[in-house]
Q: What sequence folds into this?
């Protein structure tokens, strides 16, 4: 079975109690998506930055400590 994706969700005749409402607005696009984009993009950038730094640190450690057979110096030395 293959995964599918749909960006459309339609709710009809649904009741949500007032104490369970998270965000109420008449202009969803302006108030939630555009203003919330700052928060979401910042968090995504932080995650990918840390993943990239982890990969860089791993490669640096590997190249500065690993010595191939019959070599006196690590792979990353000058």
A:
């Amino acid at each position: 079975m293959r995964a599918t994706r749909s960006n459309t969700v339609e709710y009809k005749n649904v009741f949500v109690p007032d104490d369970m409402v998270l965000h109420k607005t008449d202009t969803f696009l302006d108030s939630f998506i555009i203003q919330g984009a700052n928060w979401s993009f910042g968090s995504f950038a932080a995650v990918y930055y840390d993943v990239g730094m982890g990969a860089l640190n791993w490669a640096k450690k590997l190249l500065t400590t690993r010595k191939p057979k019959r070599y006196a110096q690590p792979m990353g030395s000058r």
Remarks:
- The chain has a mean pLDDT of 80.
- The chain has one helix and no strands.
